Amino acid sequence: LRALLSALLTVLALQPGRAVPAGVLVDEVWDGEPPADAPGALQALVGRLRRALGRDAVESAADGYRLAAGPDAVDLHCFERLAGEGARALEEGDAVKAATVLDDALALWRGPALADLPDRAVAAARWEARRLDARRTRIAAALAQDQAGEVLAELAGLCADHPLDEPLQALRIRALRDAGRTAQALAAYDEVRTLLADRLGTDPGPALRALALQPGLQPGRAVPAGVLVDEVWDGEPPADAPGALQALVGRLRRALGRDAVESAADGYRLAAGPDAVDLHCFERLAGEGARALEEGDAVKAAT
């Protein structure tokens, strides 16, 4: 009985303030196997839910029932609002606000999404994807505050659970780089590249390639070739270091555009100005594409 009550409350809560037809409630609560007297059983279950929540909590509608509550009374809807607010704050450059709001959003999670509705696996997967996206954004906010060392453990666990998630892997490589672990960042990139090739037959996307190939470059500032070699190979350069560096720069130009990396007197620099490389933008767009694909919108994902 407790499971039935939880299922009824969950179905109503997914559409707070909106009437849910009795037939839909019966199908969802009893998972396609309704009792003999389904209308009577539903009415009895609604009565029990009213006694638990208060008589006015569940209102009768023309052909069903509705939960008398606003969206913010439901954790999932409140989470979605806060997650969106946090993402916008980060895009606007307010990493501190983004971190605070996203912490509030993620604190609303107390277990798997829609666990009381086993037939809602697709919907549950979408909510879990949104949760993962919020965690990605929260980590990006930490990196924007120079807190790379504080998120490395979390990133390692997330990447182990989602090894083919390129935006997540890009965050991990960026965190390793920002924490001064250049050799580990390059090793992580090689692991991801091999994994993508073996499992999907694809190469890393531009966000990953950019992170792997530009650990020492900064927009508008020339960096000597020797410094780049030291940073990229962590003090252990290959035999032909100048040639290897030139090859890496060539790959970076192919990934980001030929004008993205400029040659300087004794090194290279990233192009500055409105067309400069924006890795945060890469990560955000890659995340949006991944979400669109998870939700079945292949056209939007490709765009």
Automatic annotation (TrEMBL):
Its keywords, alphabetically, are: DNA-binding, Transcription, Transcription regulation, Two-component regulatory system
Pfam families to which the protein is assigned, alphabetical: BTAD, Trans_reg_C
Q: Sorted alphabetically, which InterPro entries does this protein's record hold?
A: AfsR-DnrI-RedD_regulator, BTAD, OmpR/PhoB-type_DNA-bd, Sig_transdc_resp-reg_C-effctor, TPR-like_helical_dom_sf, WH-like_DNA-bd_sf
Q: Which domain of life is it from?
A: Bacteria
Q: Which residues form the OmpR/PhoB-type domain?
A: 1-91
What is the phylogenetic placement of the source species in the record? Answer: Bacteria, Bacillati, Actinomycetota, Actinomycetes, Kitasatosporales
Query: What positions does the DNA-binding region cover?
Result: 1-91
Give the GO terms filed under biological process for this record. phosphorelay signal transduction system; regulation of DNA-templated transcription
Q: Which family is it part of?
A: Belongs to the AfsR/DnrI/RedD regulatory family.
| Species of the source | Streptomyces sp. gb1(2016)
Q: Does the keyword Transcription apply?
A: yes
- Please state what the protein is called: OmpR/PhoB-type domain-containing protein
Entry GO MF terms: DNA binding
